[in-house]
Amino acid sequence: MANLAHLFHVGQKLKIRNDDFDSLHKFNDGIVKEAHEHHIIVTETKTNTDGWYEEGLNIDMLYPEYNF
């Protein structure tokens, strides 16, 4: 299991993949709020909601902004 605190840092900008097929936008913007060893908490900037992301569950929905 990867240490997510080494891969992500607080304040890092991310793109969050939106799985809603009705959505106009496939990606939403987010910022890392907390980075822990086994999970990270990301705040979606548009709706100001927090999400819990961890390896093996939903970490594959996050992409660093510099990849775009």
How would you sum up this structure, described in words?
With 68 residues, the chain is mainly beta. The chain has one domain: SH3 type barrels (Roll), CATH 2.30.30. It has one helix at residues 4-7, and strands spanning 13-17, 27-35, 39-44, 49-54, 62-64. A hairpin with a 3-residue loop joins strand 2 (27-35) and strand 3. The model has no long low-confidence stretch (mean pLDDT 90).
Brief write-up:
The chain has 68 residues and is mainly beta. It is built from one helix and five strands; from the N terminus they run αβββββ.
Total number of beta strands: 5
Query: How many structural domains does the protein architecture include?
Result: 1
CATH topology term? SH3 type barrels
Discrete helix count: 1
CATH class: Mainly Beta
Neighbour order of strands in the largest sheet: 4-3-2-1-5
| Portion in strands | 35-45%
Give the SSE order as H and E letters: HEEEEE
Q: What characteristic shape results from the CA principal axes?
A: globular
Q: Residue-averaged pLDDT, rounded? A: 90
Identify low-pLDDT runs: none
CATH architecture: Roll
Head-to-tail CA distance between termini: 26 Å
Radius of gyration: 12 Å
The proportion of residues forming helix, as a percent range, comes to under 10%
How can the largest sheet be summarized? 5 strands, antiparallel
Content-based structural category: mainly beta
Features of this protein?
single chain; SH3 type barrels; 43% strand; 68 residues; five-stranded antiparallel β-sheet; 1 helix; 6% helix; mainly beta
